[in-house]
Amino acid sequence: LPGIDIAKSQGARYRLGPELEICGYGCSDHYYESDTLLHSFQVLAKLLESPATQDIICDVGMPVLHRNVRYNCRVIFLNKKILLIRPKISLANAGNYRELRWFTPWNKARHVEEYFLPRIIQEVTGQETVPFGDAVLATKDTCLGAEICEELWAPNSPHIEMGLDGVEIFTNSSGSHHVLRKAHTRVDLVNSATAKNGGIYILANQKGCDGDRLYYDGCAMISMNGETVAQGSQFSLDDVEVLVATLDLEDVRSYRAEISSRNLAASKVNPYPRVKVNFALSCSDDVAVPTCMPIQWRHHSPEEEISLGPACWLWDYLRRSKQAGFLLPLSGGIDSSATACIVYSMCHQVCLAVKNGNADVLADARRIVNDETYVPEDPREFCKRIFTTCYMASENSSQDTCNRAKLLAEQIGSYHINLNIDAAVKAIVGIFSMVTGRTPRFSVYGGSSRENLALQNVQARIRMVLAYLFAQLTLWTRGMPGGLLVLGSANVDESLRGYLTKYDCSSADINPIGGISKTDLKNFIQYCIENFQLTALRSIMSAPPTAELEPLVDGQVAQTDEADMGMTYAELSIYGKLRKIAKAGPYSMFCKLINMWKEICTPREVASKVKHFFRTYSVNRHKMTTLTPSYHAENYSPDDNRFDLRPFLYNTTWSWQFRCIDKQVNAL
């Protein structure tokens, strides 16, 4: 309702909201429940009754059961009368989307049936049945047609035929989530829709965390004749954002008039059923009303996207979980430092929103810090209240990483704890020795690889246990109420490779960087040095990534990530994109890489690298089943929950595939 009020106050005559907005797009298997349908209709009844929805066409999204089949629908109404229920035709079912699990597509093109309204709606509208199906609205002055999210991305988008049939305004209600470098694709699709066919295109998208790993990234927009005329924000803490534009329908008509190929196609088009609406979007005396001019779309850089998207996701998660802040094991490396910077960016966004008069953000901040008079003005001061960082040293930790973590904590303002885990590690290893009579040793002291790995794992897992203990009780020791959410900081590349201890500090409540590559994180760190003046990050950037789980040599780190993994992070990103985005198995990956790397590797070396990746990937795939819920930002994410569905017990010899590679190597 607040959005409808704002739209009306700015003179709007048609209001469009995002996909399934009444119940929320992320209901998942709750769509199976009759309660979800019931409560959606209860909300619809409230909207129909509200004075705010009078004299404006309202287009809202909700699930509807028609003849015992569940559809993802737009319900379009005006002045307490439902004009049309338009079911979705093309369902999103790739990647993170599972719409075919809950909904059925409407497969009856240009066909309309009677929908029998439930009594709760009949009592408000006085209607017994309303049109349900693939139709368009004919007002006194124009014609409007709806698309729903995926239909814009489909090869045979409805706007093509609708435009040929005289529809001048296309609407799109979306539930489109953020992926790094994706926003321009959406913008290009919308502008291209009206460039070829003429018309006005308005797109509304969800914005924020909807209770899972995705962040819906707004970017509401209005386009006419191939040019953007209004742009909404991609990331913000505002619960409601309204985009309004005034446009001249005659501009659409004159644009279409000279496109001969369009007009020839239009003369042969199969017409859509039209629902007549006794209402106009324009006024008879609007000649002097100024219209909106085209604008240049401003895209965020990938570094800005990392700074803003995960920060907004964290804020939504924090306020909705009703916790008092975050705890982060801060190692002094790039990954945990990037996570710390994202929390600091979140604090910046909160202070900025409060400064701009966002009362909801202020109320949430006061509740989180348990102070009804508090006003967050300084990001560092707010960070001190809601963010605890913890450096967990062991005898294998260097003084350098300790100093880096401490300096970064000082610069962002977090409440910083230094502790040493050696006593706990010795106690656990001591229990093992007492039971078995054997004491494991690191390989540098003559131990086997099994002993070496087990001793590293113990340290890592102790840190996870301590992180949760301090998250639960740190505020108690400071005389403050509440607990803290534990943040993880494993990046997408090391997750793919399985270069992490199962149930170590990568196990947390949520992970804001779990879908971001090491390369992008390095660029983000550089952005933070320049944008937030965090000079402590310079030494973090220049240090080689290390787990610091093996003994130091002369006080210096001897262990590095890339040496341990047997591959570089840059190579890992390439493997990840080929495996997931290019759908490459071992043999296809080898075939692509012998060309991609022909200047730097022989076919035999490429074969060796590909085999090593697939062996380690498959051996460690089981770790993905327990991966901390991570912000989805990259299309080669190995997230096992919904996005990347694979077995977790593999034949790790890949015997047939590797034989095919060897045969090809020998031929070459």
From TrEMBL:
EC number: 6.3.5.1
Pfam families listed in its UniProt record: CN_hydrolase (PF00795), NAD_synthase (PF02540)
Family designation: In the C-terminal section; belongs to the NAD synthetase family.
Pathway noted in the entry: Cofactor biosynthesis; NAD(+) biosynthesis; NAD(+) from deamido-NAD(+) (L-Gln route): step 1/1
CN hydrolase domain mapped to chain residues: 1-249
Root EC class: ligase
InterPro entries, sorted: C-N_Hydrolase, C-N_Hydrolase_sf, Gln-dep_NAD_synthase, NAD/GMP_synthase, NAD_synthase, Rossmann-like_a/b/a_fold
Designated name of the protein: Glutamine-dependent NAD(+) synthetase
Organism phylogeny: Eukaryota, Metazoa, Chordata, Craniata, Vertebrata
Keywords: ATP-binding, Ligase, NAD, Nucleotide-binding
GO terms for MF: ATP binding; glutaminase activity; NAD+ synthase (glutamine-hydrolyzing) activity
GO cellular component, one term: cytosol
Protein's GO biological process: 'de novo' NAD+ biosynthetic process from L-tryptophan
Subunit structure: Homohexamer.
PROSITE patterns: CN_HYDROLASE
UniProt xrefs under NCBIfam families: nadE
